[in-house]
Design brief:
The complex is a heterodimer of chains A (147) and B (344). Chain A is an alpha/beta fold. Helix content of chain A is 36%, strand content 24%. A seven-stranded mixed beta sheet of chain A has the order 1-2-3-4-5-6-7, with helices on both faces. Chain A is globular, with a radius of gyration of 14 Å. Chain B is an alpha/beta fold. Chain B is 56% helix and 9% strand. Chain B has 17 helices and five strands. In chain B, helix 8 crosses helix 9. The chains are: A alpha/beta (147), B alpha/beta (344). Chains A and B meet through helix 4 and strand 7 of A and helix 2 and helix 16 of B.
């Protein structure tokens, strides 16, 4: 699978998983099926792969898909910091990083440091490894639990 | 012990939860372990850099040939069997069966080991995993080597005969595993124990790194904290520790800083070196610079490469991208060759 196909697969897999868990969310994903399809909004110059919201509770979910190679880039860290800082300003923010099973450990390390840098306290931060959602403990910011 | 070649119903064979390839990966599930998660761990258990697609390659190969060529190895447990070699092949059969893929996937070729003692089981696992064709996570591999050496008291000669390599390499893996568990595990909760940080502890075993830490009046517990707190984020930066700790200003920047502070400290040293170089010899050109001067500058330039340039290379945005990538590949091959010649 090429890197772009893999990226697309990671976007679709997290949308499907989120839809199954939160059927009331409305999604916009950056995988246009046809010209004119809506795309997620730009946030501080970065466009997330998935933007979802639920009107009734004003919750916002941002999901970003990263291949194993992308996880090593500094750009990825900067992008995620922006998304988490944006969600921190909202009331019910949820950030999910969708990765391959092989990349899950690296993704968890990265998000732990993102939380340290952003001092995020109200945004829930999770990794989706293709099988499970792993939620970063909001009190210590270091441990992960199955969600 | 008796070996019996047979064909088994795949539903009668369970995965091996002591499989060294996935043992650590399974621990994180605690009491919530199930067959789906074992299957997922097997799919993901490759070295992220080298073998991310090895599961799908194996799956394609089994599908193409209509079955496994080499039988799996099982032991008898209760009314069924446990697979001690061939868990991935078994997982693929179970997946095909579940997805009703065309073919005969309900039965699999197997060797049943009757009355096998623990040592025989370990030998089968060593041959299957340490010498196997499929890459697996470095931490899991080191953990297993540590177990064989310290719990099964296997001699280095025996380990080398079974898995190849040399004593120094195996020792470094075992020491890295020990240091990570001693100086990193102790300071973090188990679910915060990130095995992707392992290669930092392998770097720690290289010459002069530990000495530099001790000479600076620090110890390995500090090292564990630098990794935990992300002061050292890119693990190859462990190699920069001797020069950072030798310089008072860089040392202070590193120790007092937050995540990735070693990168700031290295930049500081680079600026100092550039300044000194400018003063010392403004006549140096690309042609007259030494390989080491060029390497330092090149490493810094690659590290600071703007993302737009990475994307331009990746997406082939310019006509000369193929040529530029080929130049980098040529450099990488020559460097790799040189390092193989001079490394211990």
């Amino acid at each position: 699978m090429s890197q772009s196909d893999l990226h697309r697969h990671l976007v679709i897999q997290v949308v499907n998983a989120l839809e199954a868990r939160c059927p009331l969310l409305s999604f916009v994903a950056d995988v246009q099926q046809k010209p004119g399809d809506a795309v997620p909004p730009l946030i501080d110059g970065f466009r997330p792969d998935v933007y979802a919201s639920k009107e009734s509770s004003r919750s916002i979910v941002i999901a970003e898909a990263k291949t194993d190679g992308d996880l090593k880039r500094k750009h990825t860290g900067n992008q995620i910091v922006c998304f988490v800082e944006y969600l921190e300003q909202k009331r019910n923010g949820f950030f999910v990083l969708s990765v391959t099973g092989c990349g899950a450990n690296r993704a968890k390390t990265l998000l732990r440091f993102v939380r340290q840098v952003t001092h995020a306290t109200t945004t829930a931060i999770a990794v989706f490894d293709g099988c499970d959602f792993w939620l970063l403990d909001s009190s210590d910011g270091a441990t992960w639990h199955l969600s | 012990m008796v070996e019996k070649h047979t064909v088994l119903n795949v539903e009668a064979v369970s995965f091996d939860t002591d499989n060294p390839r996935i043992k650590k990966a399974l621990e994180k599930y605690g009491g919530q372990l199930n067959a789906e998660r074992i299957h997922f761990a097997l799919r993901s258990a490759t070295d992220g850099n080298k073998g991310a697609s090895s599961y799908s390659q194996l799956k394609d190969a089994i599908l193409a040939s209509g079955g496994v060529i080499f039988p799996i190895t099982v032991i008898v447990k209760g009314n069924g069997y446990v697979c001690i070699d061939g868990n991935t092949r078994l997982a693929i059969y179970k997946q095909f069966l579940k997805e009703s893929v065309d073919g005969s996937w309900s039965e699999i070729k197997a060797v049943v080991l009757d009355n096998a003692d623990q040592r025989v089981i370990e030998i089968v696992r060593v041959s299957a995993h340490l010498v196997g064709a499929r890459e697996w996570p470095a931490y899991e591999k080191a953990r297993y080597l540590h177990y064989l050496r310290n719990s099964k008291f296997m001699e280095y000669g025996e380990l080398i005969a079974l898995c190849g390599g040399n004593k120094l390499g195996i020792e470094r893996q075992i020491d890295a595993y020990h240091d990570m568990n001693e100086y990193y595990r102790d300071v973090v909760d188990d679910t915060a124990f990130h095995i992707d940080r392992f290669s930092g502890f392998v770097e720690l075993q290289k010459p002069r790194i530990k000495e530099a830490i001790f000479e600076a009046g620090l110890d390995l517990k500090d090292f564990g904290e630098w990794i935990r707190d992300g002061k050292i984020y890119r693990l190859e930066d462990v190699r920069q520790l001797p020069k950072v700790l030798r310089d008072d200003k860089a040392k202070e920047t590193f120790l007092a800083g937050g995540p990735r502070s070693i990168e700031t400290a290295v930049r500081l040293l680079d600026q100092q070196a550039e300044k000194a170089l400018d003063q010392k010899d403004s006549e140096i050109t690309l042609e007259t610079a030494s390989v080491y001067q060029l390497a330092e500058v090149l490493a810094r330039r690659i590290n600071d490469l703007p993302y737009s340039e990475v994307r331009a290379l990746k997406d082939k945005e310019r006509d000369n991208v193929a040529e530029q990538i080929s130049t980098l590949e040529d450099l990488s091959a020559r460097l790799h060759g040189l390092l193989e010649d001079v490394s211990e």
